[in-house]
């Protein structure tokens, strides 16, 4: 378990992190979400014992990070948001170099490298120069590099940026495999849907402050008030609103006094509840032309945009 | 083990670059053409020269090639180390090195030795050219050995200072510029100061001590003392009240400079030097605190 307690980080007049508290459970895939400049990379660098916090404490089980940074670094595999590769080396030589500087014995290196290349599906590129690899391959090679010393915790800074859909899905599977191996993964990204699908828990950070943290459903539900249905009727919008208002499955009606044909409601329940709502509308001969339920997770992007409004670093 | 991994990686990276082959070719071409031009000018290839004239030509050829080699070393050594650390930061690979078991010493020693190996390769590649001198004679084997020592020490100081620059300066272009400025000043400082101050002021004993130190630490002076045949016991420098041949005194000064720049680099290469120093003190305090039991 990683405990972050009252962390502050200041770079001269810039407050990168402000009184941040977080608990990252062991074996979790923990997502850090925030706009550019929110402090995600700073937090990951502190967790990797690469920079000390200005104030506060970070505990890895019973070890405080500033007291034993070298011990923490042995437990942590860090993958920065930039590739950080040496183009003149082959994939195997690149991994061999990092195996060497992590103190892995010469006899163990070939098998470790072969296993890692297989894990990230780069066995066929073993002898290819790093500069000839595609962006996605370089990312996977960097992940293999972060795993070279078999760390307990993986810190991945924007690892999926630049991935195409297929590469992203493969990467997600890879993360699940690593989670299955008992590793705790902390991952930052601004591609929210992807992160919500990958992670078991998320924390939303804005301007160095923690807005909300917890499991994905809990966070998005708290922020958005649960899933929503957006429907459009040809006519009798007022009747439709009145009918929906009386149904137990409907939690809220947005824009209640509106008379427009588009009706947005919050609801609680499963697919059966959705069917009952639709069946009731049809039974009352209300001409529904579209009926679009949005799961909580689908609305994450929208929620995220609303809470981080005006803080983009652009 | 971590040190050898870094060294192997550095050498692989350097030697695979096409640029390195061209550096050797151009290096040998410059030396060879200058030597050949000098011999042509002296008509050294015409028959009928007496042996003492030939030995003079040999000594002068040796002096010329040595001076050219010295300038080439000072020009090339910083190129291999002046971006060694900040280049890693610019490539964003430095954090990855920090996350490893690589100590500050291993990191710097690996980078320094990798840079020096490249320079030593150039010096080794030039040995066949220097052997031309033996056709003419006039140069003693001890002179050749002491010249190689001066070359190596010059390369070590230039490379270590450049490494120090790459440690404390963030931009590779700035560190390269500072390293070359230092090398130029180092090579010519003695003459610059001599001409700026002028001979009347040199009679001031305090100033003359500093001038002597500048002279001792100057690679051209050390090389000049070798090629003009000054050995220990003849004209010597007094360093810490002990007489040394100029090239020996130069070697000692270079060793001191190397140690100072290398230690400073160790202090500054990893972030938070003060914090690391304090945690080191805490560690010592914990280790040597008398038991309360």
How is this fold's topology laid out?
The complex is a heterodimer of chains A (314) and B (293).
Chain A: E1 2-11, E2 14-24, E3 29-33, H1 40-47, E4 55-60, E5 63-64, H2 69-75, E6 76-79, H3 91-101, H4 109-119, H5 135-146, E7 153-157, H6 165-180, E8 184-189, H7 192-198, E9 201-206, E10 209-215, H8 216-224, E11 228-233, H9 237-245, E12 250-253, E13 262-267, H10 271-283, E14 288-294, H11 300-307
Parallel strand pairs in A: 3-8, 3-9, 6-7, 7-8
Antiparallel strand pairs in A: 1-2, 1-4, 4-5, 9-10, 11-13, 11-14, 12-13
Chain B: H1 2-16, H2 18-41, H3 51-81, H4 84-90, H5 94-98, H6 104-125, H7 127-130, H8 133-136, H9 141-168, H10 172-197, H11 205-216, H12 219-227, E1 237-239, E2 242-244, H13 246-269, H14 273-288
Antiparallel strand pairs in B: 1-2
Helix pairs in contact in B: 1-6, 2-3, 3-6, 3-9, 3-10, 3-12, 4-9, 6-9, 9-10, 9-12, 9-13, 12-13
Order of helices and strands of chain A: EEEHEEHEHHHEHEHEEHEHEEHEH
Strand content of chain A: 25-35%
Report mean pLDDT of chain B, rounded to a whole number.
84
Say how many strands of chain A there are: 14
User: Cα distance, first to last residue of chain B?
Assistant: 40 Å
Unreliable runs of chain A, pLDDT <50, ≥5 residues? none
Structural class of chain B: mainly alpha
Describe this entry's structure for a reader.
The complex is a heterodimer of chains A (314) and B (293). Chain A is of the alpha/beta class. Chain A has 2 domains: 2-222, 3-Layer(aba) Sandwich (Rossmann fold); 228-294, 2-Layer Sandwich (Alpha-Beta Plaits). Helices cover 35% and strands 27% of the residues of chain A. Chain A is built from 11 helices and 14 strands. Chain A has helices at residues 40-47, 69-75, 91-101, 109-119, 135-146, 165-180, 192-198, 216-224, 237-245, 271-283, 300-307; strands at 2-11, 14-24, 29-33, 55-60, 63-64, 76-79, 153-157, 184-189, 201-206, 209-215, 228-233, 250-253, 262-267, 288-294. The two termini of chain A are 35 Å apart. With 293 residues, chain B is mainly alpha-helical. Chain B is 77% helix and 2% strand. Chain B is built from 14 helices and 2 strands, in the order ααααααααααααββαα. Chain B has helices at residues 2-16, 18-41, 51-81, 84-90, 94-98, 104-125, 127-130, 133-136, 141-168, 172-197, 205-216, 219-227, 246-269, 273-288; strands at residues 237-239, 242-244. In chain B, helix 1 packs across helix 6 (104-125) and helix 3 (51-81) runs antiparallel to helix 12. The two termini of chain B are 40 Å apart. Chain A binds chain B through residues 45, 48, 50-52, 67, 70, 73-74, 76-78, 80, 82-86, 88-89, 93, 96-103, 105-106, 145, 149, and chain B through 1-2, 4-6, 8-9, 12-13, 16-17, 91-93, 95-102, 271-272, 275, 279.
